[in-house]
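Extended Data, panel c. Modelled sequence:
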Amino acid sequence: MKIRSADTRSSVGRLRVIKSVKMKKTAVNVLKLLAGMLLGQIRIPGNCSPFAAGFTAACGADAGGACAAAGAMIGAAMGGFWNGIRYSAVSLLIYAAAYVFRDTRLITKKRFMPAVAAVMSACVGAVYINNGGRQLADIVLYAADIILSYGSCRLYSEGMKRKGGSGRLAGLAALGISLVMALGRTEVMDTVSVGRFAAALCVLGAAYTAGVGGGSAAGVALGIALELSAGGGGGVITALSLAGLFAGIFSSGRRLAAAVAYVLANAAAALLAAPEEMILGLMYEAFAASVIFMLPPESLFTGIFPRAPGRAYLGAEREKAYMTGKLEQASKAFADIYSVLARASESRSGDDGISAVFDVAAEKVCRGCAERDRCWGRDHEKTRGALADAGAVMNVRGSIRAEDIPEYFRNGCTELKPLIEQINTEMRALMRRRQMKKRIKEDRELLYNQFRDMSAVLDDIMRSSGGGGREERKTEQRLNDYLDASGSRCVCGVFRDRNGRLHVDVSGENLRALTSGKDWLESLSAAAQIRLCRPAEQPDGAVLSLYQAEPLEASVGIAALEREGSRGSGDMATWFKSPEGILYVIMSDGMGSGGEAADDSGTAVGIAERLLRAGIEPEYAMSIMNSAMMLKNEKNMACASVDLMALNLFTGETSMYKYGAAPSYLRRGDKLETVRGESFAAGLESRAPDVTRMTLGAGCAAVIVSDGADSPSAIYEKLMSFDGGSVKSLAAEILEKAAAELGRRDDMTVLAVSVAKRV
């Protein structure tokens, strides 16, 4: 019983769904019949009626197309005998052609049915041109009839598609304008035009939701359409466009203000420009439209007339400009601080040097000496000369002895030994002061460089946020059209970053259904007309992030050995690919081996990686990392060499940055190159890294090694014989041969990178 009951309910549900679908189709077909009738009655100058033909062609070969053709024939017949025969024949031939080709691929082409409408209009119209004597005016109207048949079909076809986008909006607008034209000659009490009333209502809605531009544009377009179909001596265009302009100016999001402004502007324009017999009708129509305009809820306007994106977009642009200005000011502030501090450091005077040492020693020792007046009075020049001679020796040795002082001074000085001891004491103090000042200077420079680097980072962020990438509106529209057609209920945003790479972010309720098909990524790529790829890690489960596929791909392999007898390696390496399509390879060799060396190399790699992942340029990332290492290792003066390779997988442009690292080796074609650096390891001095730039294309390879694995012969041999196979095997072979040649006296790490075309 339960099973039977369930079957009964499901059957009833299916019947209801089927009835609902049939009712909807019937209603749509009736609307197409009525639309065909209305469009068939449109008469533009020359008694032409091309819009019904275009509408029939747009409706296709199904029952809706038959209804549209029947409606077009009825409407054409209502316009007179000869006109009825002409356009009835055109509509009938168009539907017949659509029915014949209904099962072919041609019917799915955008230009096929518009071309059919144009050909049928041309064939039937040619008969009338021949009978009329082929006058120039008739030929012009004949050509216009063909062009309008083709163009109206294209627009109506876009408007009747289910997918959204600018094409559908344009098609719906064209269909709406055409229906307004059809109703232009229909009047109530010989005064109020139904078409002009509908136009006034549309202009009011456009002015309220889209502002000045939307209101005036709608007024001009609908005014021209009504003038062509029903006439008006220019008064309709003036009334609708001027009223739309003022309604947009004074609305400010208030419907009552928009309605009042529209009625007043329409009345003024009608009194000034409209024919006398039309003035009263224009005023009645404007008043009636304003009353109807005030009745619906606000949701109707946001649904049918969406707010113009220009308003919200302007606010977003202004916010972006505001934040860009703030970043620019902050960048300049840090740059100014760096300049002030750097100038202050340069203006500081140094110590007094050796002369101050002698002066202080003489003051302490010679003050109570009985021979003071002779040495520092009568023989002052001789005393200064003797100490100057000793100072030359002290500058080299760091101290003086008795034999370093001239004999004539030694023989006359009664306090020679205490004086030499005091001079050496003051010299040691001077050297300590110099070391301290040097350290303070280095710390100051480190601090100054932080302001400089921060200024550069903020400046880089400012350039990116201020339009470093570029918009891709057409690509975004194509993808959104595809998503609408697929029924996925998803939307996407598309842009290019500062490296030129295309980003596609898809969001919606049904992402899993979108990605469930086998070839979903290929379909999206075809819609975007650009090959897309999916990153290994998705940043957010609610958003599907896709990127433009790079033309190059890189493979990375690593092999490592600890120093013989060591329990841990002091080397550290990592690599990753940024969203901009740049491969970063980082390797660091800590001083010594074991835990402390691993801590230093891990710190260097970790800081550099975090900065690079945050989008900081490699030069600034390396400089900031070096400063951080100097501060971290201030007490024990530990350090770590750092290698950074940045490979752009779109252009092949490659930069290699080094802080005290071993040479790196490149193979480009049949040539082997060595990349060396002159800087100290990170954490030892405040300076920029060594930078070498080159281009690596498909077939190139690079090898980065730590100090313990730097065996040029092993690297040259294996790198030259590398045929593009496994880079992991290449790294292992180099490491094995280097260990055999050099021994495991230090931690050994080999990192190999190969570049190939993306398959």
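The chain is about 60% helix and 15% strand. This feature is highlighted in the accompanying rendering.
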